[in-house]
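Q: What would this chain look like folded?
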Amino acid sequence: MKCPFCGSLETQVIDSRVSETGDAIRRRRKCMNCDKRFTTFETVEMRMPQVVKSNGTRIDFNVEKIRTGFNRALHKRFVPTEFVDQAIARITANVHSLGEREISSRSIGEMVMAELYKLDKIAYIRFASVYKSFQDVEDFRSALHEVERPPGIKGGKAGAKPGSKGAAGPGNKARVAVVKSRPTSA
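A: My prediction, written as C-alpha cells:
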C-alpha cells in the first residue's frame, strides 16, 4: 500500500479489525520510510454486468431504470412501495447471481415482467404493451388471455395441473397473490 504522506510503497500492517457493520476490514498501517501511520479500509466491490441493448450498445446496469419502469406500469395502482422494492431487489440479486459480465436488456425486461405479473396484472399488461410493442387490439387481447382465468379456478388455466406446462403464467412461475388494503373512513 502506498503511503499517503511520502509515497513509499513499503508499509506494514500493524492492526486489522472487522468494522462494526461487518462489511469492511479496517487496517492500521505504518510507513517504513517516514514512520507515519494511516488507516485503510477494504470492502467488497460488487460489479453489476453491462446491459446489452437490442441495438448492440452497452450501458451500465442502472437500478433506477428498473424502478422507473415499475413506477410507470404501477401508476395509480394500489401496490405498496415495499413490494416494489422487494421485486427490484429480487431482480438485482438475480442479475448479480448470474455472474455474467453482460446481460441482455431483453433478459432484464423478462425479469421485470415476471415480477409485475406477481404484483399486479394491470401493471403487467401496461408494461407488456410497451415492452412487446403491441400494435393492435389483438395483441392486448392475447395478453389479457394470458392473465385471465375462469372464476373458481386458482393458479392457472382451466384443466391445467400445478407444475404442468399450462399452469401459472409466463415462464411457468407460480403466481403470488398480493392482498391490498385500502384505508376506510369510519
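The chain has a mean pLDDT of 80.
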